Fold each of these.
Amino acid sequence: MALPLGLSIAVRHLVHRRRQTLTSLVGVSLGVAFFIGIASMMQGFQRDFVNRIIDVAPHITIKDEYRLAPVQPVEAAYPGAVVELRGIKPKEEVRGLRGARAIIDALEEMPGLKVAPTLSGNILLRFGSRDISANVTGIVPDRERLVTKLEKDLIAGSLQSLYTAANGIIIGEGIALKAGIGLDDMVSVVSPEGVVMRMKVVGIFRSGLTLMDNFDTYALMKKAQVLQNRPNVINRIRIRLDDVEQAADLAKTIEARFGYRSESWQEQSSNVLGIFVIQNAIMYSTVGAILIVACFGIFNVISTVVYEKTKDIGILKSMGFRETDIRRIFVYQGLMVGIIGMLLGWALGYGLVEFMGTLDFKMEGFVRAQGFILYRTPKHYVISGAMALVASTFAAWLPARRASRMKPVDIVRGAA
Amino acid sequence: MTAPVLEARALTRELPGLVPVTLVRDINMVVEPGEFVAITGPSGSGKSSLLYLLGLLDTPTGGEVLVDGNATAGLSENQLADLRLARFGFVFQFHFLLPEFSARANVEIPMRRLRALGAKEIRARAEWLLDALGLADHADKLPEQMSGGQRQRVAIARALANDPGVILADEPTGNLDSKSAEVVFTMFRHLAREQNRAVVVVTHDTDLAATADRRIHLVDGSLA
């Protein structure tokens, strides 16, 4: 009896239509639960991927390329003139990053970042009768340590032994498995320049990013320069930031200052990040569809109640209930289904996530993972709850409005 | 002299349409406190329509209704609802009790809507009203557990909940056996004479109507 009048009428209506109410409750709670489960799974995977990229890959890479073709003299002399030059391509730098030393010095004066110069190029790894094309990155191990976590990713060997071995090379786990190469094996490395070098595998790394594990190798800078026949050339400067979020802005600044193409990690992984956007859109629309179906359920129950309770509406209105009083009775009903459905859905969703957490299987896509990578956050509960409440209130609103607009005289006359 | 509780001036109600139908035509009438008025007439004569107009449930197409001497023509839906809540009690042919609520809870509903009394007083008044109507033992019963006469008395108790000045009843005995009908009518007479309320009852039962202070006979929507 402590309940407000409208609420107590609403409760009785729902209790009266127990089965239909339960059906729509199940609909709402399933929608909420699935949202929590799917969102936790997808965001878990996405965040894991991004974290790995941030860990493994440099946050900004300065390349020896230009984004645009250089401005031609005729265009400089006659800006805006009707001149068209065709077939002009962005300049290629045979000599790598010019003035790399100066760029590195300038970068190192900026706060919150670490810099490592590299030279990367293609090679062919030959082990026995196996040929594997790969990418070799010439590094300075002491600097590399600051910029990527290659050292932590090593599952065999060490970064330091690049210095001690005569011709050391570190390869990805994918390459090692494909060719059956083990630690301390000797491989032949052939470069497009025709240089052949016998190198010793001094390390094997596993980054978890499939692409890197299958294609990347590391060697000392000097060896890479010999392989590529580009003595003293650096063609990449890799930067690690303390604050990852600044990568895109800083990349622009650097590009504007030095002219070389500078890519943030977002730009380098834009293909995958783009897939995430689509994934999220699919998730939201799937869960949205579940909730819409649940809403039809709510709409159905409340419409039925309104139809059945026409006489009650008539008497309530004739005894002096206002339109808002009547509307409230039926909106309450939707809201109650929404709230209870939301709570049930939260419990169900929590259980679903915990259950998925116990599943164990191997997965290899963009990343290698063991079981589902789950992301648990109150945000998912808030979003799904809000969606459930908004949807159920809206579903109740339509029949509630119809009920509130009924004319008492039509009802009492019709019944008499 | 104080204003009459209820007054109709040139009250007319037409249903629009290709062939407009006139339900009530040019009715003038005054109901004083303590008066028990019966509206009679053959079916289709507009008795109920007149009652709905008097009870502010329907809007006239011509003329006006005055409650306590005040015009009601310009009032909003909400104002009309508030006026009905405080000043009118309705009894219909069908009891229209909310089936999920006990007799006492049904009687409490108008008081809980008006919010003039606290929860304890509302409960006490509901029990007092049921007791006054001889239903003290049935307060906790659901409508479906009661007889037709008992339900109609609960409906009357509900109509009295907010102590209205006017009781309007539309064929209140239409579904009752003659004995129950007699009880209900006695009650209406009592409400008018002892409690000084205006009671307007629509009925086609001429014997019962004969017991009223005044009879208004309608034919084809007009006073006859």
Amino acid sequence: MEMQMLHIFRNTPLGRETLLESAYFCKHLDILPVVYVPGYVKFLMYFENDVVQVDLDGSYLRSPETARDHVVEIVESMGLPAPKFLEPKHFTASTLPDIPVDYDFMCCPRSITDMSSKIGLGYIGPRVRRIVQNARFPVYIPSAVFKPWQSLAVMFGGSANALRALKLGMRLSRISGFPLDVFTQEGRRKRKDYEDIIDSEGLGVEMDKYVRSWRFFETRSFAENLYEIPHDALIVLGAYGHGLIKELFFGSTMETLQTVSPNSMLIVGPNYRASI
Amino acid sequence: MDDRLLLIAFGAAVGVCSGLAAVALSHGLVFMMENLSVFRDYWWAFVLPGIGMAASSLFLEKVVREGAGHGVPEVVYSVSRHGGLLRLRSSFSRLISNCLTIGAGGSAGPEAPVIISGASIGSNISRLFSLNERQRVTLVGCGSAGALSAIFNAPVAGMVFTIEIIMGEWSAANVVPIAVASVAGAQVTRLLQTHQISFTHLRFDVDVISTLAAVGLAVLTALISVLFARSLRYSHHISEKITLPVWVRALIGGCMVGAIGLILPGVLGEGYNSIQQMVEGAFVPGLALMLLLVGAKIVATALTLGWGGSGGIFAPALVIGSFAGLMYHRFIVLLLPGLSWVDEGCYALLGMAGVISGTMHAPLTGIFLIVDITGRYETILPLILVSALSTTISRVFEPASFYLRELVEKGQYLKPRTDAKVLADLSITELVEKDCKTVPRNMLLGDFIKVVQDSHRNHFPVVDEQTGEFQGMIHLDDIRPYLLDSLMYETVFLEQVMQTEVETVDIHEDLSEVLDRMDANGLFSMPVVSSNRFVGMISKATLLDKYRHELMVQTMH
């Protein structure tokens, strides 16, 4: 079945870059972009166990008369057919549409609800976190400026979400033909432990088939080692489920990664059903 | 732990929390009213409701960014469509906005805000403890019941309203936890509350004549209910057409309410004091003035709720109903002075039940609310008569209750265990049959027959070999005329015999709409097509299987 990616369009230069990112992603993975041009500054996403309200900033409503033309132009410039536009069918209130959540991917800026000035490095908004935690789809977080990625880099830390991310990376590599590299920061677990995890999941054959290299960082901190990730790679990682206290004091690995690395990222949450 | 015991325990906890929310709202209202009362005598006091409503609107739009309505329809929608999921912010936002609206003099009630607060508390407690959807819906009901029970000190009315309006069904699994929550909410309010309507000391001797005369009151309250509901909607539509910021509209609407209040102060606020006077028989104004008060209260409430204030229609309906009851009583006394009539306070109570029942299409709520707040059953016969008739008559003019009208019109209200509800819980994605073999449009008939031999299907999607785009369908009937002529096998291409005018289904389409189209066109299956690509087939046979399964899941408890 054809996969679909939801993109919330912002009719601004920054919105153009993020749509270019989405279009590039869709082009290489044979995905249909479904674009929502917001008519209201708020919308709700009803997931299975949570409802997330996204409060967009005013720039999402800018120049509605040209928004659709811009979308078509950008998507077609990438060699894709005209995108599908999402028209909300259901409304919790007259100015509060419900956006469906049964897509295969969703593109979110690093913060979907705040002013563009914050959408640089170093900030993943709380709404994006909640979407990642609840969604059955992976969330694509593009870099601020469109840059075609040429490979896939999976951050593998051995957790259940990391395994999902690895499977997704393999799947994307299979569909797109882009090489896949895996990166692991050694800590308490050593290389043998990670290899055992892969074997216990029965992914040995797939690792040989799809993974170009598996690099282990044995020295230096995680943040320092991120320099080794190719600048033109799409980073695929699982959402790290730290407790609130730990996250407040030390920050999450995901936070560190997106603070340090300008690459586009694809984040896999706990509800994503992974297959290769 | 047993599922029922678990729900009872959670229901009690939710009831207590909802009761506390109701007490907090009541204290907030008292605080606001007491502190603003010193300004009421000034000529400029008419701006107070405007300022309160503007502040309420700004708070909802800019601070908590609610973007939603007054409460009850949102709770019903959430239960009906989204398994009771409600935002955490809804647990407190309406309490504050309602305090600002009513405290400043807006004509509205505190019930809808406290109902959505209670419901949201229930929803978020269930999320915190990872309860399933069915349990979450029950706790939303518990929150609603606990809140209404606490704000009116009316446990039976809280329970009945929740089951009639919010849940839309009576089921054993829901009733017990909701009843417990209702008791918990009422108990909290009895411990902590001082500001409540209660007329337990009253006693009415209702005779046959008074009971029969209540039929006329039922007709009157039904008509007033229809007028009230339509005024609310009309006012909202007018307000929406004005291209001013929401808070400015609220300011204007509030000032108009304030202006009415300068002449008729009885229309301001929740209006419980007027009700108390009427029920006790201490309300002095005459017949004409009461008619004016009914109209003024309807207009003031429509302006308050339609132009940006926050609140519910429960309290205004009670006030309007009591005015109507009293007015009707005085009219029949005037008309037939020789007969002995029950005290006018009794008719004020009947009027309340009539307008509540007529506006909300909830006769049991109307009956039990009055029984709860009087604590007596003497009025039960005329109560039943007025509530039942008022509901029935108002249904003739208004097909759905005020709370559900908009949801019903948009097709968003799904009554539990109905066809629409079952279909809404299924998606096209779940039903798509993917084992369909696509064939290219330039395939020869002979090659196609080989494909047919290896397949168990009668329908085959035809696609463009180059672009992969969906071109049409071919059914076995389409090739039947050529089957016995082997010469055709090498000369006929599928594009020559395929059907190109095919009804297709989008993957995100509502199943009920798809089924309607199937019925209208006499189809048993349809191709699912997304951006010109064939995705699969959807058939009535698969739908029936999934439908039965879903129905069993929904009716299990």
Amino acid sequence: MVGIVGYGVYVPRYRIKTTDIAEVWGDTSGRIGKGLGVFEKSVPGPDEDVATISVEAARNAIKRSQIDPKDIGALYVGSESHPYAVKPTGTIVAEAIGCTHDMTCADFEFACKAGTAAMQVTMGLVLSKMIKIGLAIGSDTAQGRPGDALEYSAAAGGAAFLIGMKNPLATIEETVSFTTDTPDFWRREGEDFPSHGARFTGEPAYFRHVGEGAKSLFKKTKTTVDDYDYFIFHMPNGKFPIAMGKQLGVPAEKLEDSLVVRQIGNTYSGSAMIGLARILDIAKPGSKIFMVAYGSGAGSDAFSITVEDAIEERRGQVPTVDDYIERKTYVDYATYAKFRRKIKALG
Amino acid sequence: MSNRVAIAGVGMSKFGELWDKNLRDITLEAGMYTIFDAGVPGSDIDGMVIGNMSAGRFTGQEHLGAQAVDLSGLGDIPAYSVEAACASGGAAVRHAYMSIKSGEHDVMLVLGSEKMSDVNQTEAMNTISVASDWEWEGMFGATFPALYAFMARRHMMEYGTTEEHLALPTVKNHANAAHNEFAQFQRAVPIEVVMRSGMLADPLRVLHSAPITDGAAGLVMCREDLVKKYTDTPIFIESSAQRTDTLALHDRKSITTFNSVVSSTKSALQEASLELKDIDVLELHDSFSIGEIMLTEDVGIAKKGEGCKALEEGITEIGGKFPVNPSGGLKARGHPIGATGVAQIVELVLQLRGDADKRQVDGAEKGLAVNIGGTGATSIVHIVGR
Amino acid sequence: MAEQGVAQVWRRIRAMYRIEGNKCETCGTHFFPPRPVCPECRRKGKLENYTFKGLGSIYTFSIVRQAPDDFKRQMPYVVAQVELDEGTRLTTQIVNVDPEDVEIGMRVRACFRKIKEFGHSGIIVYGYKFEPVMKVTGHKQ
């Protein structure tokens, strides 16, 4: 059965506290971070971008899986902050991890769900036997306009999933998607920062699409909330996934372990996938996982996953999500502005 | 007939930030002073060689040999331009030495020149970095000061060298330059000032480093039997030696010794049938103070690891047993890259002729200069005598 | 002709991305960057590609506080010679560390970073930097 034969994550070392961001804009109450459920967010170093984050995550995935990178037949990097507008990130990753040149590669973009879209595509290629192993990466160095609500959550990180048939550490039983044309968040060509529909990003966008995706997966797999041990919903902030869980009747404790957004912020294409990685870091064999990723614009990808026995022997060699969360150095707003190219004079 | 090579005359431009002069002006200035000092008729000069590292990047002009001959009105004589990074000047001297020794040329004008102040900091730093291994050192963020800092850090660990020690060459060389009217910094600096100057690349500070300098220097070199026609105070090149080491510092077994300096010094002394104790005055390449400390050891003034001790004991001061850099060295005279190796010989000639005024090393008869390129990938040693 | 940096960087990608050097099968010496000729064995040498494991320790280092524009955003940054476990040294930045914590002998591993950009519209150069070896807890149960 098709499944995850390896996974790895990467989160940059730097963090900024959301209270430090709020103070810059005159709010000393600490309300904003608390309201969003985001207390600190990861900040990429000045020499980090989606290509470097993707390579680090991919190297971790390969180390965990112990596969030969030459067996990877397809590699897709999902992101909305690819370093080049034209020129793939994936080729950089493929060369860096030692893939063969006889493979296919492309970059994906679907706001925050480009990485899970890559997972679905590689599943298809594996199931059709066109390739042996596929590598799907979701990675972002998200930008928030200074002073905008997004600035409190837009973070950096990525996750890489190796999809294959042989000896998976978790099987993927089913995946479904729900897609409409809903412009809740976008970035026009040449613009530095994205724009969003403010409260429009909620009900008609996130909640409708995640909700419909989830219902569709329950229906297709003939399962209910009770059949799953862990839930992961895309985390644009700490509030939305919890509200989504309530709407679907998910007990809080089944959602709790995936909420990495509180410590690292919204890593966009990496968000749900890092949540999934954190569950895989801790779940016992036999556990069932329900994940719905969301991408603005808009769509959702829902997955039903079962943890296999093989997972136990693949632990211990590679840093966990928590290892990365705990490895942190705080920066102040000025340093954050320097790193994130918000100081124009530095080019 | 002996076939030594003689130096008939020397000259140099003022060293410093010469805002009102371009590369042509300073090269011509040094050339003219040199020719006047030598008393050589222009028509006797049958070849010209110029040492320059990077005029193409610093000023946008290459083909300096032709330019210099053209400007000096030396007719259609052959003109050579040589490059060996910071040892370009020494390479020019050696080029003339070999040309005259071989019989190909009789009387040559040797120039060294660099105009560095016309570019911004980034361009200056990047241009200097190409003296090391640009693709595997410079591009990865190892600035030139950082490479010397690598050596300093190891020297401190291996031999207990301290931050105070690193300041000693600067203090000595500035004191010497106070008496050199061509020097960029004609003033002493107290050790406290050196030790609290800005950090460039830990543990190296701004005042451990040679400055960005514009300047040119020149020599007239000729066959021994011709020199009496031009001057009563000829100086002779007793020997010339050059050695090479790896371009990248990381490829060397030890980075606290310059193998190229050790072997080129040995070879030069041997060729001149001299021992180090016969040398009265030295010009050593102190682009960074750690460089002078290491060279003090590598030429044999001090044992390995004891270069600082020699400095502390005053052995390398004017009046000491082995005066080093009476001119002020690269640190205080200034370091116009391509000119440095020539300027070192200019200083030794002045010392040997007794023309060094207040910085005169009494009774100096033999002088030795070490000019190194990059982080020691090239070392050129000349011994001069009267 | 090629746009600035393009071909120059492209032809070195394997060495820069993966620390691919070579090894002389005759004398067993590893080389990075790859050498065209074994300086010891010369014509008797037999050079084979070798991908370094990317583990080593700091041989010497400096903290750069004046740097060209490319590196301004990173200042102050640590640059070092790392002695690879295979026995050769390379020059590289050390990241994910506070400069004051760096010391000679510190264990480091290779990571993947942006090395330089040829301006806003030029190519981006990627390659190795090194970081302190990371704590791996495996998983909590």
